[in-house]
Amino acid sequence: MEAHTESNHQTGYSTYIVVWLTLVGLTILTVSSSSFELGAITLAVAMLIAVIKSSLVVNIFMHIKFDNKIFLVFIGVAVMILLVCFLFTAVDVFFR
Amino acid sequence: MSIYGSEPVQSVSNGEITIDNHAEHHEHVHRDDFGSKMGMWLFLLTEIVLFGGLFILYMAYRFQFANEFHNAARELNKGIGTLNTIILLTSSLTMVLSIVALQKRKKQFSMFLIALTIAFAACFMVNKYFEWSAKIEHGIYPNSPTLLDKEKGEIIFFGLYYSMTGLHGIHVLVGMILLSVVFFKIKNNVINPDKFVLLDNSGLYWHLVDLIWIFLFPLFYLIH
């Protein structure tokens, strides 16, 4: 069926090289931002950059963007469950 | 209607599925690339949950011992951490390019890129070896007298450091073995441009190892 042809999606070398350069750039950004005293938001900035980096890896390197959408649902459910665990633990730790 | 190429004719007799592809004369074994990939993703999700549990532990202790974590992280070498991050990102690139190369029917180049990925993984482990050796030389290893003299939060920091980067290191080693197997399978044409789901799945595994490091790196090396 036509709907599934994207699972055989072929991307050239160049797209991946651009993504790789972006990832290296973001790594340099996260390392240099850690030298500034940003106080409480240091962790938030580092995590934000890590989330951007991982979404690039998952979407492009792991082909989730081009693959069958069921894999995206899989990951979404797993990440949601993990976030709920994080949230409940954080609430417990904070307000104990 | 098949996702991957022409659909072979299936017939069920005596509970056994035989697949007969009329276009070719040789025997056809049952093959389900989509199922293989789905199985791989399910496995990767269990890996995310495994590391996720450790990250939750990290979060809870970091809030409890914010200052101790801050001080303990000074012992870690930011330079080696950054270098290892870039090495792993680059190995992810060579991994994904080897799949493109095989799809373009450039077998030799694909094998070269797999070998390069394994070499980067080896570099990562060598750096890790030097990093851990330096720590151990300074007397910082689980249950060491020097470490036990430190504050409770710092002991926990190094406990998490050794267990999380250690578990990640084991994954890198497993990845190297897996990619070596893939290398020889490409060489023997078991993995070929028409059938490369094992290469695809090994790639997914390798990117997951990279993904975990993307979070480990700032949480351990960049908090001071």
Task: Write up what this structure looks like.
- The complex is a heterodimer of chains A (96) and B (224).
- With 96 residues, chain A is mostly helical.
- Chain A has one domain (13-94).
- Chain A contains 3 helices and no strands.
- In chain A, helix 1 (13-35) packs antiparallel against helix 2 (41-61).
- Chain B is mainly α.
- Chain B has helices at 33-64, 66-72, 78-103, 107-137, 145-149, 152-187, 197-221; strands at 9-13, 16-20.
- In chain B, strands 1-2 form a two-stranded antiparallel ribbon.
- In chain B, a hairpin with a 2-residue loop joins strand 1 and strand 2 (16-20).
- Chain B is elongated and about 65 Å long.
- Chain B starts with 8 loop residues before the first strand and ends with a helix.
- Classes of the chains: A mainly alpha (96), B mainly alpha (224).
- Chains A and B meet through helix 1, helix 2 and helix 3 of A and helix 1, helix 3 and helix 7 of B.
Please give a handful of descriptors for the protein shown.
heterodimer, A: 96 residues, mainly alpha, 3 helices, 73% helix, 0% strand, disordered N terminus, B: 224 residues, two-stranded antiparallel ribbon, elongated
How many DSSP helices of chain A?
Answer: 3
Task: Note the run of SSEs of chain A as H and E.
Answer: HHH
Helix proportion range of chain B: over 70%
Main β-sheet, spatial strand arrangement of chain B = 1-2
Topology:
The complex is a heterodimer of chains A (96) and B (224).
Chain A: H1 13-35, H2 41-61, H3 69-94
Helix pairs in contact in A: 1-2
Chain B: E1 9-13, E2 16-20, H1 33-64, H2 66-72, H3 78-103, H4 107-137, H5 145-149, H6 152-187, H7 197-221
Antiparallel strand pairs in B: 1-2
Helix pairs in contact in B: 1-6, 1-7, 2-6, 3-4, 3-7, 4-6, 6-7
